[in-house]
Amino acid sequence: MTQEEVARAALAEISPAGTVGDLLDSTAQDDGTATLRFVSTLPGYPGWHWSVSVAEIAGEAPTVMEAELMPGEGALLAPDWVPWAERLEDYRAAQALIAAEGAVDDLDDDDLADERDEDDDLGDDPDDGIDFEDDDLLGVPLGGVDEEDEAEAESDDDGPEQPDET
């Protein structure tokens, strides 16, 4: 088996079928190792390539040491990592700025709310003008349940009644 065949077999074990393209290049080292690079056809990974390191000892079959997906020229990469403490400082500064701008905007919003209150027409909501704290509103005190009602409720808690034997 050639180094390329061994490398393709290793990539077939770790990548979906059809995601390994043509051989880009092969770099041999003096110590009997070689690195083979293949085009990656993975969706969402433009500019990336597969890299497989193969070792070949005299008289032995080639062996895969490492296989990985590596960014190439023009590959899309994640942005540089920023420590949490720095991100938190940036976040707090942005929140302070928003709060400062919001204080100015709140004054304008309060003025608009006052105008809306003046334009509110009574009668468009059936509950307008009703005082729900008034005990005599419905002629029923809001104080609680009558003692008779409590006695009936307690008797119902004894369980189901037995059917009449007829």
UniProtKB/TrEMBL annotation:
Extent of Acidic residues compositional bias: 103-137, 145-166
List the residue ranges of the region (Disordered). 102-166
Q: What is this protein called?
A: DUF3027 domain-containing protein
Organism encoding this protein: Pseudolysinimonas yzui
